[in-house]
Design a protein that fits this description.
- By secondary structure, the protein is α/β, with parallel strands linked by helices.
- It has a single domain, classed as Rossmann fold (3-Layer(aba) Sandwich), CATH 3.40.50.
- The strands form three sheets. An eight-stranded mixed beta sheet has the order 3-6-9-7-10-11-12-13, sandwiched between helices.
Length: 318
Amino acid sequence: MCVLLAFISVFGCCALRESSAGGDDTIPLWPDLSLVGGPGEAQPGENMVERGDQQKHDRRFSNVTHPSLSILLPDHSDAARSAIVICPGGGYSGVVTDKEGFDVAARLSAAGIAAFVLKYRMPDGKPPAANEQPMPIQDIQRAIRIVRANAKQWNIDPNKVGVMGFSAGGHVASTAATQFDAGDAASGDPIARQSCRPDFVALMYPVVSMRPDICHKGSRNRLLGETPSDILVDRYSGELHVTAQTPPMFVVHAADDKTVPIANSQRLVDAAKTAGVDVEFITFEKGGHGFGLGVNGGESATWFQRMLKWMGERKLLG
């Protein structure tokens, strides 16, 4: 049974309390957006569709207005363990919180990794202001800062905080890996003082590019509007922003993905290699799109153990 802790934010300060075990504990990302109800429940204005059955949840939340972070810590209390913030997919019209969120978090926690499932806000289909990141990007940056700000209390190595993204959540994660800052040292908010640069990134069949020849059009239209400028398209095409400071990458994609072309991953990987970034690219002949942890007995089910091996080789497992 996992140890679950709740985070209480009061005027930007952090406090922790023990919580009952047996389920995920969920905290608000922003102090002015409190949560109503328990983990996995819809917040005011949100819609939730249960696509699973009594044996297994498969929830999809849309119109997310109250972004949150669900915390799943491993049983043991070893210090200096790694952490991963998970960004589920949903085409920027919703968030698939179980298949690409809580199910993965449980596997990570069992492997000794602190897992955090991010339910990020949805963009409104309008181009973001020139001086402002889209809401999903604001939320992943805030989530990374929260994990670092609470690293001591959650027994996390603040230098081993990674992000993982699936499909459109892969765009959230890859943007976090290519657009980041060191934090605001002068801020009165201890969270805002933290860096939002992830130390590593894992991407599963990710949306990466907003360029029209390979983009997932639905994700692009919802994030940037139906007629985005070339400047916006390039700004949020992650393959164009890889530098030597980009963290190590583990990327997975199926060649037969008909929803998000594998060229999204290939261009990102090529850019990483050009910049001298450590990158591992796993391709599957079959798997399609949205396979989550993979199909039992199929090749796509191997990626999780291969990722743990990759992390272990880079001393990212704690």
